Amino acid sequence: MQVMRAGNYCDHCRTPATKSMIYINNKTKKRYCVDCRAEFRQQLILKGMETELATKIMITDFILINDPTKKTRVHK
């Protein structure tokens, strides 16, 4: 059985980083795969947020984790 290191899977659907790119939300410090990130954007739009503003939030708040095996550091 393979042991997953912290940071190389999605916090929502547990998709490993070997199957999908992983992003970290800068504000909540949670990890999202590509599908969960798209679902998060759709939820923002369904709650009444404009599409342009939701896209801007996705660009500013989500950071692509380049090497998911390393510990992620987000600087403030």
Beta-strand proportion: 5-15%
Rounded to an integer in angstroms, the radius of gyration calculated over CA atoms is 13 Å
Taking all residues together, what is the mean pLDDT? 80
Order of helices and strands: EEHHE
Low-confidence stretches: 1-5
The major β-sheet equals: 3 strands, antiparallel
The count of strands amounts to 3
Shape: globular
> How many domains is the backbone divided into?
1
Task: Please state the structural category.
Answer: alpha+beta
Straight-line distance between termini: 37 Å
Oligomer: single chain
Broad CATH class? Alpha Beta
Q: What's the total helix number?
A: 2
The amount of helix comes to 25-40%
CATH-scheme architecture: 2-Layer Sandwich
Strand order, sheet with most strands:
2-1-3
CATH topology: Herpes Virus-1
Please tell me about this protein's structure:
With 76 residues, the protein is of the alpha+beta class. The protein has one domain (1-68): 2-Layer Sandwich (Herpes Virus-1). Helices cover 32% and strands 13% of the residues. The chain has 2 helices and 3 strands. The protein has a 3-stranded antiparallel beta sheet. A hairpin with a 5-residue loop joins strand 1 and strand 2 (31-33). Helix 1 packs antiparallel against helix 2. The N and C termini lie far apart (37 Å).
